[in-house]
Amino acid sequence: MKSHQLFVITLALTTVVSCKKNTLVEQVDVPATPIEVVKVKGGSSKATDVKAIEGAFKMYELPYVYKALEPNFDATTIEIHYSKHHLGYVNNLNKAVIGTKYEFLKLNDVFKNLNLADTEIRNNAGGFYNHNFFWENMSANGGGEPDGNLMESITRDFGSFDAFRSQFTEASLKLFGSGWTWLVSDKTGKLRIVTTPNNDNPLMKNLGFSGIPILNLDMWEHAYYLKFQNRKRDYVNTFFSVINWSEVLKKYDAFPKVAVSTSTNNVVNETTVIPAEKKQTSSVPEEFK
């Protein structure tokens, strides 16, 4: 009897140890995930270096080398952002438009005709356009403050450049999740700050607002996390050190401003068009040209 009890106890202990051993193996025996090492070129970043798949849309040519924005923005982040994330949006868009009403439309016309329920087009066309806009509004010689009509409008609509910068920063930090911060103008030249979730942008219809975009900031984590981690305020502040204000001014001056004249009782009685500069950029929506 004692031998039988000893056998049962031994068997039970063996089973428990075996279960624990198996459980332990299941918890720690996880295949290693390879880490991709990105080599920073640090040299030419022409359009020929990064190509999208054959399709309706081509990769935007980065106007500077990957390391050009250092020490403000590091070359590794710029290269991954441009050659991985941005390229991905263009490739996905080229695939998504095949056989759809968007296949032969220009990008601005895609947004004018976009059904927001077409989420694949919405996300990838937005990601393509938003990044094009983001890259061209930064420069190695950027920073400081704008001048000309843009500075006058910022002072008029925000009180001062410092007040504008503060409001732009706070709007960016309050944006929940991934998205973009925009400085937009209406047809009269009045400026305001708006944010959009994911890859939405002011050119899309039925978002609850409209405007001509002249500046934007990428608030997706891939835009800042390698250098700034969770320090988003540092990222936004650093962005102001690389803003290409001459490019932003060019966008602002590129479309005609409609001046509204009012009488003493604040009733609108006439409108006139203020001529814009002859050169116009592709970033201006067709309906505002």
Q: Give the overall average pLDDT.
A: 81
What count of helical segments does DSSP give?
9
Unreliable sequence segments: 4-37, 263-289
In whole angstroms, how far apart are the ends? 99 Å
Radius of gyration: 27 Å
Largest sheet: 3 strands, antiparallel
Shape: globular
The level of helicity is: 40-55%
DSSP strand count: 5
Give the topology string: H per helix, E per strand.
HHHHHHEEEHHHEE
Side by side, the strands of the main sheet go: 2-1-3
Beta-strand content: 5-15%
Structural class: alpha+beta
What does this structure look like?
The radius of gyration is 27 Å and the shape is globular. Helix 5 packs across helix 6. Residues 4-37 and 263-289 have low confidence and may be disordered. The protein has helices at residues 2-28, 75-96, 107-112, 119-136, 148-158, 161-174, 225-228, 232-239, 245-253; strands at 179-185, 191-197, 212-218, 257-262, 268-274. The strands form two sheets. The protein has a three-stranded antiparallel sheet with strand order 2-1-3, with helices on both faces. Strands 4-5 form a two-stranded antiparallel sheet. It is of the alpha+beta class and 289 residues long. The chain starts with a helix and ends in a 15-residue tail after the last strand. It has nine helices and five strands; from the N terminus they run ααααααβββαααββ.
